[in-house]
Each structure stands twice: as structure tokens, then as C-alpha cells.
Protein: Anti-sigma regulatory factor (Ser/Thr protein kinase)
Amino acid sequence: MTVLHRVVSACAAEVTVLRRAITSWARALGLDDDKVQDLALAVHEAMANVVDHAYRGDHGPMEVRAWPHQGSVIVVVSDHGSWRTPTPHAEGYTTRGRGLKLIKTLADEVAVQAGERGTALRMTWSQVGLP
Structure:
């Protein structure tokens, strides 16, 4: 089966382009419409988090990799920025913070790996009917 792999600048325009690409990719795999929409929205939220938080105003690289694996679909969105844990006293703090909650609702499994070399968000949709 096919792998989707893109590395782009972490900016809003690229998020729109990549959402279309991931939607087309998921449809081509044969996922049903509900799964396609869940996957596209979760990946969109993950990419928006990179744009909003990873590079502190700059546009560093954002990588999206998606592949089928043993009847499931795995998508990883990653960056090379710095993890910033929001605090109520941080400059620019808002009450937004719903993206990761939404992603965890849409995907069957979510894992965040944050470190000095960036952040990777791995999302898995299990048993989506793929061979």
C-alpha cells in the first residue's frame, strides 16, 4: 500500500494543502467517509498545533507521514521546534487548548513524543477495514 510523506513549511497555507492531500490519500485507501473526515480533522488539528506552537513565530519544517499497517492507519505529524508547556501565567496564554483533546477523541490511539529535537504526534486508527 501507499505511503503519504510530505515535508513543508509550518504555515497556515500548507495546512490547507496537506489537509486536502491527506483526505485524498485516505479516500484512495478505501476508508469510509466518516473515517476520512475524522482522520482529516485530527491531522488538521495536529498541523495547526505545529503552526501555532512549534517555532515561536518562524516557519520551520513540518512533516506529515501516513501509512496503512495491519488493517490500521497511522499518521505522524512532527516538527523540529521547541515544546512549550502552556501555563496560566505564560505570555499569550489562552483557554484554547482543545486541539489535542479533539485529536484524542477522533483517533483510537494518540502518542506525543516531545524532546529537544522537536515534537512528534502519532495517531492511529485501528481496524479500519484495510487488508
Q: What stands out?
A: The domain at 4-125 is CATH 3.30.565.10 (Heat Shock Protein 90). The chain has a mean pLDDT of 88. The two ends are 9 Å apart (CA to CA).
